[in-house]
Amino acid sequence: MSQRKGQHNVIKKLPELIKIYPEIHYHMVGIPSEKEKLADLANNLKVIDYITFHGEVSQENLISILSKSDIFVMLSEETAQGDVEGFGIALLEANYMRLPTIGSSNCGIEDAIDNYKSGVIIDPTNLEDFKMALFEILKNKKSYAENAHKWALEHTWEKCINNYLKVLKQL
How many Å apart are CA 108 and CA 30, to the nearest integer? Predict the structure, then answer.
């Protein structure tokens, strides 16, 4: 839980999203580096009851949380120090479980999403983009779920390594 991971970008959108999706709930999983800062933001926006801070969890608990979710969201952003999200393997892990994703443009996440198939890439600060992505995925959830799983299977370690080996052999 940090600025780079962009949880604050989701929290800031919750007041408006709750009006459309009153049963929405945001589950945050990960090292709770900035949990207090995020909790303060959620309290100030009066959305704390719509959030669960899980912190670090076991693989078993992660699978349980993901299996009960509708969409995986990672609205990462570049920090003031220039730190950016890399490839976004967590999105592919969610896709493997047939979980569509919403992720940030202008970082490595773009490579982890098959836009409008396994998920939707958006400007992480734009509320309207986020609302559109939610609507799009929820309206076509079955198609996104199937495409997400297929996309993940195209990016297994075995396939990635074989692709690297092909490139290296050409050098």
Answer: 19
> Which tens digits make up the pLDDT trace of 58-86?
999 999 999 999 999 999 998 888 888 88
Residue count of the chain = 171
What's the whole-model pTM score? 0.91
> Alpha-carbon distance 59 to 56, whole Å?
10
The DSSP annotation for 118-149 comes to TEEEE-TT-HHHHHHHHHHHHHTHHHHHHHHH
In the prediction, which pLDDT does 55 show?
A: 94
Do residues 112 and 89 make contact, with C-beta atoms less than 8 angstroms apart? yes
Residue type, 108: G
**Measuring CA to CA, how many Å separate 77 from each of 46, 50, 99, 146, 156?**
24, 22, 22, 28, 26
| Helix axes 89-96 and 141-153, enclosed angle (nearest 10) | 120
Ramachandran class of 30: left when φ > 0, alpha when ψ lies in -120 to 50, beta otherwise: left
How far, in Å, CA of 121 to CA of 78, rounded? 16
Tell me which architecture the domain covering 7-170 has in CATH: 3-Layer(aba) Sandwich (3.40)
Q: What sign does the CA torsion over 159, 71, 84, 31 have?
A: negative
